[in-house]
Amino acid sequence: MPDPSDLAAVxxxxxLATVTTLILMVVGTPIAWWLARTPSRWKGPVGAVVAxxxxxxxxxxxxxxxxxxxxxxxxxxxTQWAGIGLLPFTFWGxxxxxxxxxxxxxxxxxxNAFEAIGDRPLEAAATLRASRLDAFFTVAVPLAxxxxxxxxxxxxxxxxxxxxxxxxIGGNIPEKTRVVSVQIYDHVEAxxxxxxxxxxxxxxVFSFLVLLALYTLNPTGKRK
Length: 224
Fold this sequence. Notes:
Elements: H1 4-37, H2 43-55, H3 58-69, H4 74-81, H5 91-117, H6 120-127, H7 132-143, H8 145-160, H9 164-170, H10 180-189, H11 193-217
Helix pairs in contact: 1-5, 1-8, 2-5, 3-9, 5-8, 5-9, 6-7, 8-11, 10-11
C-alpha cells in the first residue's frame, strides 16, 4: 500500500504536469505557428533551439537553468528584483524547468499540424475578408485540433516522467519538490522495493495509457 509520502509525490507530479501543460499550450502555440508559416532564415536556428531538450542531457539543461535561476543569474536577479524571490527548490522553479524541458514535445506536434493545413484554407478565409487573427482562430486552430491534443498528451506525459531536470532544480524536498520519479529513486536507494514497485507500476500503466491515447488520436494506416 502507498504511504502518505507516495501520495504526496503523485499529487505534486500531477499538479506540476497540469500547470506546465497549460503554460506550454499558451507559449508553444505562437512559436509553432511562426515556425510553420515563416520564410525567415531564422526558422532553422529557432527550431533547433526549441528542439534542444530532446538531445541535451537533462542534467546539463538543469545545471544551466540552475545558474540562470540562481542569485547571480539573469532570471534570478529579475525574480529577486520583482519581489518573487529565488525559484530553485520551489514548485514554481520546477514549473519553469519543466516548461523548458517539455517545450519541443508541445511545439513540434502543433507545428506539424499547422504545416499540414497548407495555404488554401487560409487563402479562402482571406477572400471572405477574415483578418489574420480571425483566420487563425476560426480556421487554423480547428483544423489543427489533433495536433493540439497530441501536444497536450505528450507535454503532460513528458513532464510526469522527468527526473534529472527536476532533481537539479527542485532537489528532493518532501511535499514541495519531490515528484514521483524522485520518490521511486529514494525508495530504491533505501531498498524499499515494495513501495518502489507500486509507483513504478503506476508509471508503466500511465505510459501505456499515454501511448494508447496517441495511437487513438493519430491512428496509423488511416486512408482518406
